[in-house]
Fold this sequence. Notes:
The protein is 0% helix and 32% strand. It is mainly beta. Strands 2, 3, 4, 6, 7, 11, 13 and 17 form an 8-stranded mixed sheet that branches.
Amino acid sequence: MKPRTVRTSVTLAGGAAAVAVALAGCGDTKAGSTASGTSKVTSSPGASGGAGASGGKAGPETVPSHVKAGERGGNAGRCASAQLEAGWQQQPWSKDGHVYATVILTNRSSKPCTLAAGWATFGKGASGRYEELRTTRAKVPGAGTTITLKPGTSAFEGVKYAVTKGCPTIGGFGVRVHEGWNAVHVPGRHGPVTLCPDSFTAGTIQPVATGVNFRH
Length: 216
């Protein structure tokens, strides 16, 4: 199947900013490609790395302890935006102008659903209106896989970006999976979010949190 470019939106560093993510579909955009209004291909550090690759280690504070993991495989219908809730967990090693976080996609419906293998698509904006966010896709912690989310379970994707002083701000982020946006309020922050241009990198969506987070 011919690769497709996917749009992606994500909530940036901890705040009540909205987050939006759209999953890449079957055979999706290759690692190292960049999704944006004018898509370009960029090199992707650690793009072929596994769980032990640079940026692929997971710490003990990856996600809240109450979050339940999804399962690999499955043939349930694709998850609709109405079934999902998008969460955000900023990692404790975020510092020196760099933010590391985990996007958490949870099935809040009463029926199981599936997420296609690949990357989420991230965007910037507010009030349900989002513009594609230029995103470098890396194979961290490895290749994507189809994921089944039973009611109350989640899938995970690590992201990182720069917030150096002097960089512009955006209104917020959102997450779109397959179709429709899911707004997410990031705890601890309100108002504009700082985001340095072309600094946003996302790993593949995984059924467990282990290894999804980028580290120094």
